[in-house]
Design brief:
359 residues, Isopropylmalate Dehydrogenase, globular, binds 3-isopropylmalic acid, binds magnesium ion
Length: 359
């Protein structure tokens, strides 16, 4: 398997280094992987003037899977929009057509106290958010900022277009129904059909698919209610499917139920399981370069890479079990630390996972 590593910005290089070290242990044990490295995000802007340079695009198209750290930082926030690091991330997602973003939110029992919710509300939590990733208001045209005549006089207006085609909804619906089938067999589709036509079509299209999946119990929820239910009674959810923007917001919310966004991996897949794997969190510029970031979300993303693009469930489970083991052993980075546990940095956490893998 050819793996392209895109460390990106902020804590990205530190956390991807640990995930690559973990994958290298599996290589030593016979899983075949080759690594290449490329530039994406702010580092690419600094190096080439573009957040998603042609050289990276070539490597990405050629790779079987991509492991990404995180992009962005305050030093690039004032650049023109098309040069911002986030544009690089959206560019690679769109070019590779990785429309299905899987974001599992699992509460590890050892971290029940790290959640801001009561342990009984979150213990045993195991949700999968299936977020559509290459459509919606993120990519819809037209969009822009321009001066117009308005009821308040001539002034700037900003606008975007929320748009989904039926086929775009059906293909993400299929991923979600099939995922539910392999898990708790419950699927909740989230929309805002009481206000937005685009999401009325979403609801109608998902509803029309339900007869093909008689073993999956389908429900629908408005996004505001879903946001509330996620903190009120999160265990009612099994698989949640939603559009790009609602999925962005709800997956951050779901991550905090588990104690730290530093624990949440993600996989973004195309129709052939070629994938882009990245932690659900951002580049955390405030702690970059200090060696304190939690590498577990990236290590767990590497496990997802083994599962979906590598088709190697055994190797994926080995990595996930190693992570469970280091948590049970009491290793904690700052984001999940509590008194009585062993506070470690990024590299030491990587070392602990590797030791657990070899044990
Ligand atoms: C995410 C991030 C990105 C998104 C940003 C960095 C463009 O928040 O992966 O959730 O909004 O998709
Ligand atoms: Mg987000």
């Amino acid at each position: 398997m050819k793996i392209l590593v895109l460390p990106g910005d902020g804590i990205g290089p530190e956390i991807t280094a640990e995930a690559v070290r973990v994958l290298e242990v599996l290589c030593a044990d016979g899983v075949k992987m080759e690594f290449e490295e490329g530039l994406l995000g702010g580092c690419a802007v600094d190096g080439t003037g573009k957040p998603y340079p042609e050289a990276t695009s070539r490597l990405a198209r050629d790779a079987d899977a991509i492991l990404l750290g995180a992009v962005g930082g305050p030093q690039w926030d004032t650049l023109p929009r098309e040069q911002r690091p986030e544009r690089g991330l959206l560019g690679i997602r769109a070019e590779l057509g990785v429309f299905a973003n899987l974001r599992p939110a699992i509460l590890y029992p050892e971290l029940a106290n790290a959640s801001s919710l009561k342990p009984e509300v979150v213990s045993g939590l195991d949700i999968l958010i299936v977020r559509e990733l290459t459509g919606d208001i993120y990519f819809g045209q037209p969009r822009g900022i321009e001066e117009r005549e308005t009821q308040w006089g001539r002034q700037k207006v900003g606008w975007n277009t929320m748009i989904y085609a039926e086929e775009e909804i059906r293909r993400i619906g299929k991923v979600a129904f099939e995922a539910a089938r392999k898990r708790g067999k419950r699927l909740c589709s989230v929309d805002k059909m009481n206000v937005l036509e685009c999401t009325q079509l979403w609801r109608d299209t998902i509803t029309a698919m339900a007869p093909q999946y008689p073993d999956v119990e389908l429900s629908h929820m408005l996004v505001d209610n879903a946001a509330m239910q996620l903190v009120r009674a999160p265990k009612q959810f099994d698989v949640v499917v939603t559009g790009n923007m609602f999925g962005d917001i709800l997956s951050d919310e779901a991550s905090m139920l588990t104690g730290s966004i530093g624990m949440l991996p993600s996989a973004s897949l195309d129709a052939n399981n070629k994938g882009l794997y990245e932690p659900s969190h951002g580049s955390a510029p405030d702690i970059a370069g200090q060696g304190v970031a939690n590498p577990l979300a990236t290590i767990l993303s590497a496990a997802m890479l083994l599962r979906y693009s590598g088709n190697n469930e055994a190797a994926a489970l080995r990595v996930e079990n190693a992570v469970k083991r280091v948590l049970a052993q009491g290793y904690r980075t700052g984001d999940i630390y509590e008194p009585g546990t062993n506070r470690v940095g990024t590299r030491e956490m990587g070392d602990a996972v590797i030791a657990a893998l070899k044990a």
